[in-house]
Specification:
Elements lengths: L1 E9 L3 H12 L4 E5 L12 E2 L1 H9 L3 H7 L2 E2 L2 E6 L2 E6 L10 E2 L2 H12 L5 E5 L1 E8 L5 E8 L2 E12 L6 H5 L5 E4 L2 E9 L7 E7 L2 E8 L3 E9 L3 H5 L4 H10 L4 H7 L7 E3 L2 E4 L4 E2 L2 E3 L2 H4 L8 H22 L4 H27 L12
Parallel strand pairs: 1-2, 1-11, 2-8, 5-14, 11-20
Antiparallel strand pairs: 3-7, 4-7, 5-6, 9-10, 10-11, 12-18, 13-16, 13-17, 14-15, 15-16, 19-20
Helix pairs in contact: 1-4, 1-10, 2-10, 10-11
C-alpha cells in the first residue's frame, strides 16, 4: 500500500492526536499512525493542569472532554500519622488543583473531532519500520506494517509523537541523554469507597513518596516511589508489610486496600526517567512530547507539555508547508519556542523530588 500526505504523525497519544486534528482543520493532509489497536491502552499520566485545560478550551474541545468524563481535583493534602497536616486549595479564581481525564475520553474527543475532515486518516495497529530519506538526507516519509501489510507513506514532514521510547527518534539517529531520578514508581488502582472526595493525597512511607490520585469513574490510583532498581528485591518479599504501611498512612482505606491489593501482581512498575535531546528536528522531521523531552511523573507535566507542543507545532508546520521550506532551520522554530519551557519544568520536577520531604517538616493546617 502506498499513501501520500503533507504530514505523517507517528503516535496517537494526546499530543499526536491533537496535532493531527489541528493540521486537518487547517486543510493539511495528515496521516496519524498508532501502533496500538485501540485507544484504551494503559496510560498513567492522565492529569491536566491549567496549561492543558487552556489549550483544549482554545480550540473549543474542553466542553466535549468534560461531557465524555473528567474529574476536578478539589485540593492537595499531605498526611502524617493518619491525619492531614497541610492542604493546598485552588488559587483565587481557580476551580481546581488539577483535572483527571481518562485517556480514552480525551482521545475519543480528539479523534472524533478529526473524523469529518477528508484530509485526515488514522491508521491503528501500525508499526513504523523504516524512515525514507532522499539524496540530501531529508526525511521524505516512512515504511510501516499495518497488521501483515507493508505500507509506504510519502510525506513532506514526519512527526515523532511516539513517546519516551520513540521509534522515530531512534530511526533518525537523533542523540539523547537518559536521565534517571533515583527512584522507580509502582502503580495500583483500587475502587474508591463511598463518599471519597476528589483529592490528591500525599504521605511518606519509609521516607519515600506515596500518593493517592482520585480518578474519574470511582477509582483511586496509588503511586508509590521505590528506590531505583529495587523492585526485583521487593518482589521476593511479602507484600503485606507495605500494605500495612499504606493503611497506616491512610487509615480510612484499610478495608478497601486489604480487599483489593493482595500481591505484588496488583502493581505495575514504571521505570522513571527523563531525557534531554540536543535537537528536536532534522530536515523533514520533528519529534515532540516525550519523544523530545521525556518528563518524570512528578507534577504530571508530561501530557500538558505534549498538548502545548501540538499547539505550537501546528502553526510552525503550517508555515513551513506554505513556504515549501521543510529544512531543519525552519522547523527549529518549534524547538526554539518550546525548549526553555520544557527544560524549566524538568528542573522543577527535580527540585520537587529532592524537596518532597520538606512538606512534612513543618505542618501547617489550613
Amino acid at each position: 500500500m502506498n499513501l501520500e500526505a503533507d504530514v505523517c504523525i507517528v503516535g496517537a497519544g494526546p499530543g499526536g492526536a491533537l496535532l493531527g486534528y489541528l493540521l486537518a482543520k487547517k486543510g493539511i493532509s495528515t496521516i496519524v499512525l498508532e501502533r496500538h489497536t485501540g485507544i484504551d491502552k494503559e496510560f498513567r499520566g492522565e492529569h491536566l493542569n491549567q496549561d492543558g485545560e487552556r489549550v483544549l478550551k482554545k480550540y473549543g474541545l474542553y466542553d466535549q472532554v468534560e461531557a465524555a468524563g473528567l474529574l476536578l481535583m478539589e485540593r492537595v493534602e499531605y498526611w502524617q500519622h493518619g491525619k492531614v497536616i497541610k492542604t493546598v486549595a485552588p488559587g483565587v479564581g481557580e476551580r481546581h488543583v488539577g483535572i483527571h481525564v481518562p485517556q480514552k475520553n480525551l482521545l475519543s474527543v480528539l479523534l472524533r473531532a478529526s473524523e469529518p475532515y477528508l484530509n485526515f486518516k488514522l491508521m491503528m495497529g501500525t508499526k513504523v519500520t523504516e524512515l525514507i530519506f532522499n539524496e540530501l538526507s531529508c526525511v521524505t516519509g516512512l515504511k510501516a506494517m499495518n497488521g501483515k501489510q507493508e505500507v509506504t507513506i510519502n510525506s513532506k514532514i514526519v512527526v515523532g509523537a511516539d513517546g519516551r521510547f520513540s521509534t522515530i527518534r531512534n530511526l533518525a539517529k537523533m542523540p539523547y541523554t537518559k536521565i534517571t531520578h533515583g527512584y522507580d514508581l509502582l502503580w495500583a488502582k483500587i475502587l474508591s469507597p463511598t463518599g471519597w472526595e476528589p483529592t490528591i493525597k500525599n504521605a511518606l512511607v519509609n521516607g519515600d513518596q506515596l500518593a493517592l490520585f482520585t480518578q474519574a469513574g470511582g477509582f483511586i490510583q496509588i503511586g508509590w516511589n521505590i528506590k531505583e532498581n529495587s523492585y526485583p528485591t521487593l518482589k521476593r518479599q511479602s507484600c503485606a508489610p507495605f500494605i500495612e504501611k499504606v493503611i497506616e498512612a491512610f487509615p480510612e482505606l484499610a478495608e478497601t486496600i486489604r480487599t483489593q491489593i493482595r500481591t505484588w501482581d496488583d502493581f505495575t512498575l514504571l521505570k522513571v526517567q527523563s531525557c534531554h535531546c540536543p535537537t528536536w528536528v532534522k530536515d523533514g522531521l520533528v519529534i515532540m512530547g516525550d519523544a523530545a523531552h521525556t518528563m518524570s511523573p512528578t507534577g504530571a507535566f508530561g501530557i500538558n507539555c505534549a498538548l502545548l507542543d501540538a499547539d505550537v507545532l501546528a502553526e510552525v508546520l503550517s508555515e513551513a508547508l506554505d513556504k515549501q521550506n521543510l529544512n531543519e532551520a525552519q522547523l527549529k522554530r518549534f524547538e526554539e519556542a518550546r525548549r526553555d519551557h520544557t527544560e524549566k519544568l524538568q528542573q522543577q520536577q527535580r527540585v520537587k523530588e529532592t524537596t518532597y520531604q520538606d512538606n512534612f517538616a513543618d505542618p501547617v493546617l489550613s
